[in-house]
Amino acid sequence: MKTDADNRPPDGVGLVETQTVTLFEPPASLALECGHRLGPIQVAYETYGVLNAARDNAVLICHALSGDAHVAGYHDEHDRKPGWWDIMVGPGKGIDTNKYFVICSNILGGCRGTTGPSSLNPETGKPWGLDFPVITIEDMVKVQKRLIEHLGIDRLLAVIGGSMGGMQVLEWIVRYPEAVAAAIPIATTARLNAQSIAFDAVGRNAILADPRFEHGQYHAGPGPDRGLAIARMVGHITYLSEQGMHEKFGRELRRADKYSYDFGSEFSVETYLDHQGRAFVERFDANSYLYITKAMDYYDLAARHGSLEKAFQHVQARVFAMSFSSDWLFTPQQSRQIVDALLANGKHVTYSEVNSRYGHDAFLLEPEVLGRLIGSFLASTSGRPVIEDNGNVQPYSEAPAIQTAWTRQRVDYDRIEQLIEPGSRVLDLGCGRGVLLSRLIRNRRAQGLGVEVFQDAICECVERGLPVLDLDLENELSSLPSRSYDYVVLSQTLQTLRRPDVVIREMLRIGRFGIVSFPNFVHWKSIVQMIVTGRTPVTEALPFRWYNTPNVRCLTIRDFDRFCRENHIRVHRRIPLIVGRRAPIRILPGLRAEEAIFVISRQA
Amino acid sequence: MKTDADNRPPDGVGLVETQTVTLFEPPASLALECGHRLGPIQVAYETYGVLNAARDNAVLICHALSGDAHVAGYHDEHDRKPGWWDIMVGPGKGIDTNKYFVICSNILGGCRGTTGPSSLNPETGKPWGLDFPVITIEDMVKVQKRLIEHLGIDRLLAVIGGSMGGMQVLEWIVRYPEAVAAAIPIATTARLNAQSIAFDAVGRNAILADPRFEHGQYHAGPGPDRGLAIARMVGHITYLSEQGMHEKFGRELRRADKYSYDFGSEFSVETYLDHQGRAFVERFDANSYLYITKAMDYYDLAARHGSLEKAFQHVQARVFAMSFSSDWLFTPQQSRQIVDALLANGKHVTYSEVNSRYGHDAFLLEPEVLGRLIGSFLASTSGRPVIEDNGNVQPYSEAPAIQTAWTRQRVDYDRIEQLIEPGSRVLDLGCGRGVLLSRLIRNRRAQGLGVEVFQDAICECVERGLPVLDLDLENELSSLPSRSYDYVVLSQTLQTLRRPDVVIREMLRIGRFGIVSFPNFVHWKSIVQMIVTGRTPVTEALPFRWYNTPNVRCLTIRDFDRFCRENHIRVHRRIPLIVGRRAPIRILPGLRAEEAIFVISRQA
Lengths: 604, 604
Fold this sequence. Notes:
Largest interface: A-B, 85 and 85 residues
CATH superfamily of the largest domain in chain A: Vaccinia Virus protein VP39
Number of helices of chain A: 20
Helix content of chain A: 25-40%
CATH architecture of the largest domain in chain A: 3-Layer(aba) Sandwich
CATH topology of the largest domain in chain A: Rossmann fold
Strand content of chain A: 15-25%
Oligomer: homodimer
Strand order of the largest sheet of chain A: 1-4-8-5-9-10-11-12
Distance between the termini of chain A: 82 Å
């Protein structure tokens, strides 16, 4: 006889059980942010994998609004649905239970085993309802911290969470800086924007307006199912992107091919929302929905600490912030605010805006890229990066604009390496897959950070254990604080920029020195070719054609000299080079050099 | 004593009155789309301005979901709020009541004077409630048509409407092609997407779930105010952009500077939504909300006619479609689908994606640019464009990328004009403010269309009465059907493109001939300058510097020859030119020409 278990992928964590522990027994109750005390607090949690002897392989996962402690595996043999992040947690998966001890607990205020408004109020013996004190993200994290201590763990290898789970991640690194080695806040924010608060308010209004809500004391009756369902429907719309919804439903009708001319649900998207609403009220408590959305609305790291910069002052964790391109609920811009504030404090931060069509829900729907990014970030945090760099530059064939630099022999890398003082802080703009940065870290003990936009290149940087920022050079360098680096490198990228003057101004704001390498476009061979053929030159150093070259700026060594002079930029070194020859050119460099490296700084 | 009237701007239409007419008296009742018949139908409407003797100056405005017949002016002296589009309708305004006879009627199914579900059912003597037949956009427009006939008007100068009003505009030009000279659908769509249907469904659910809804027979009781308010709240969120909401409210608290730790509305955005909800239930009927949103959901021009292209087959109106950059409810992409389908039918169409931070609400909040665009489109429809072109090219100083072409003497214009056969269809890519196109229309009787992205340039084209499309040359030319033009002109723009090869392929798909002009980058003066100075040349023809030139492609006459050869492009004419000299260069053109014009086509 076949059971449901036979249809399951063989690679999961298998059967798991939710465990329960009681913490904060009075008089050691928890002092909540709102001023009340709460205790005892029951906490439901699950764990996967094995805590190692050093107790340094624990990964805490923080769940979102409607999640629970059940992250992976199945509760019994007839269970059809695995835990909510089963795609990410298991043997060999992104969060590899062969390596890590994974923990997830239901949040304070929840309704899935942890104390919340549907728990019994010990004073009355009835469910708390609206008498439950208002809880905050801070309170939730304090409870998690106590749970971790209870499990005998002083320091987490990582805290990971998406959406509201990401808010908890931020609270962890701020509140317990010494207790977290790495943090991965995904598709989250340090404070909701007005639009998100508005959506939450609509959901709460729908619950509060339901006459069956009975001021929160609905436990004897049927409960405010219609109100809660409406709240969930609103939520679901915000979790999907418009494009994702269009691809999934379009204007398809559920049953007929003609309109029914009444007010029943007839479009597929309507019946989908109905179903989501109905399914949700089966498993979720309306009071918890009120409390948890309120906790999200209230969370504001910036207001609490004066500013987001100040909030992150004492962070010790390596942070990897992720956002999704089509997420309009927790936008990439909101993740970038987190990144900017961490950078302002000189913290170790990596950022990737993952390309996805799935909107906010992408954190549940993009296992491949998330698994690759999270897995390699955890690996390098544990001191075993996926790519142990040996310095060999492999040709790289994906993104065309990267090719420019990479398919060619990089004569400038050796020279740039020599120009960098050992132990310096180095920012590499357009770092590609991180080859130069790896060399500088290995050979010059540099503290390095890369900036890149191509997703695959970013993934490879993360696999190398390099911090990297998914930022657009021409528009987003304002993320980086002034005077935060010794050297800012722009290697063979200047000529591809729309606004090279702006980028150079930015690099000299960020770094003490700028190191710029670019092709010299008025090489003597080029001139001869132009006169003879009447065409724009195509050379070994500049192998592209006029219509497809990524090099949209033609400049020469003397052009750059003049630019520096006119813009109050000091030129410290000027190194004309020929491909395949290490020594700089001394005679007629303007005509003979194929490329050049400049070391520059702002004039005092 | 001062009255409210003293505070009003002096420029409005003043005191106005809503009028009422009864149409479709049985047995001549209206056959609705749903299969039922309805009649008599009472219609509430207002008019402003005077119908001229020729009866050809009537402009019909179609209102959106929550609008009514009261577009402009005040109903009495104590009236504090003018009509809903007072900023646009009045003497000297965008829709100038000194010139036009403006009409607006409350839609069928509404609750502001026109027959709808809150009207009395003649059979029962009670309000219709849910017994009212389901109505559609088509039904609404049929009623408007009858009203127009009643007013003695055969043909409207224009039909204008935003949002759901825009749907009515589309229905007008499809259903009554001979009755509309010009149509301005603003921020609208020919069919709602899944996300919009989902939001509508949530709103309806909130009303239907309100126990006071009483199956629509709530007129004796208090009515489903909470449900209707929630529906309105959801709507309001979708009308604003996230950025607009952030700027308006941020995370500001309404009264206190500390959280109240309860479930009252405390963020300003919450109290704003509360207010919007409360104000709405004062003036709107819940049943109407159900019927009107359902009419929007049902509207699908494409499904009804087989495709949007087929729907627009018989359109005669000049169409001006507008969208707003930050509108995520009725997106620019949806407007472009309308534009594409009109173009596929060779219709006269202008499109502008107006830059605005206000989201969907922008159509009520951008009086200046809308007034300019609508006003000049109406003027040219009446045969009196705002700019009567005399052919003088004035220097133009705003958008830098446009400057390239325009601040220079345009030697190529005269030549291009000579190359165009009289009476041809001409598409001008990067048409700027329409100078060349105007000349071609005036001097060569061309049928012209421009493509441009700079808003101010687009406005000026509309002022010249030119059709123009707000499209990105490099990514959006797919809007234009194959073989739809005799000539496609790309004048002094090729060298500014990131993907010139793609654009050339597109132009030869769209037109029989392509006319391309570009600077010849290997001019002898340039070569001498390069050798002598070692710098990228700066000449009279190419006055920019390497870092700020919009010319990101360097090509020569021979480069372009080779490109054509390799890409199976036939070169019909090759005209090397020197600035300030009309005759083409015959000796050493490759080195002596400053620019060149090519006439090309796809090889058969």
